[in-house]
Amino acid sequence: MTSSGLSIRLLELADMDAAARVHRAAFDHALPWLAGLHTPDEDRWFYRERMFATCTLWGAFDGQALNGVIALHDDWVEQLYVLPLAQRRGTGAALLDIAKQSTDRLQLWTFQRNARARRFYEARGFVPVEETDGSRNEEKEPDMRYLWTRADQPASAPRAGAFDDT
């Protein structure tokens, strides 16, 4: 599938190391006060053993290089990361559109201090539905749960889910 000059495809196990690198670069760029939380080996393990085993992962490529990744599980966006140099070029929106095509509702978590991510999600129809003090996430960082529903679908009751560090 192609969008705005990007090639978007389902990721395979062989892509997980590259997905981990995209995650770390984007996370550390957006949240420098949390940089270094995990080692590169831990990131690779997380993508190979946890994300690949439990999620559907899509990647956005510019040529052969992976520039963005989205991990989906049920109606949750578990991860959405775009390399800093590829941001503001439609990569994140294209990946989010893939997720929206397959469901009537999506949820995700993002940190309250990540104003850029919050603006990105809100501009794409997500609304904040819950705020926490961060005591339930690994980073101990206050976060927000966002919900998107297809325009012709009512929002249903909140339910518990995994955290996303977008």
CATH class: Alpha Beta
Helix-strand pattern? EEHHEEEHEHEE
CATH architecture: 3-Layer(aba) Sandwich
Spatial sequence of strands, sheet with the most strands: 1-2-3-4-5
- Domain module count: 1
Straight-line N-to-C gap: 23 Å
Helix content: 25-40%
Morphology: globular
Report the structural category.
Answer: alpha+beta
Number of helices, where a helix is a run of at least 4 consecutive DSSP H or I residues: 4
Number of strands: 8
Q: What is the CATH third-level topology name? A: Aminopeptidase
Give Rg in angstroms.
15 Å
Low-confidence stretches: 157-166
* Annotated CATH homologous superfamily: Gcn5-related N-acetyltransferase (GNAT)
Please give the largest β-sheet: 5 strands, antiparallel
Strand content: 25-35%
Q: What oligomeric state do these chains adopt? A: single chain
Average pLDDT level: 90
Task: Jot down its keywords.
single chain; 166 residues; alpha+beta; Aminopeptidase; five-stranded antiparallel β-sheet; three-stranded antiparallel β-sheet; 30% strand; globular
Describe this structure in words.
This protein is of the alpha+beta class. It has a single domain (2-149), classed as Gcn5-related N-acetyltransferase (GNAT) (Aminopeptidase, 3-Layer(aba) Sandwich). 30% of the residues lie in helices and 30% in strands. The protein contains 4 helices and 8 strands; from the N terminus they run E-E-H-H-E-E-E-H-E-H-E-E. Strands 1-2-3-4-5 form a 5-stranded antiparallel β-sheet, with helices on both faces. Strands 6-8-7 form a 3-stranded antiparallel β-sheet, with helices on one face. Strand 4 (65-73) and strand 5 form a beta hairpin. Helix 1 (16-30) packs across helix 2. It is globular.
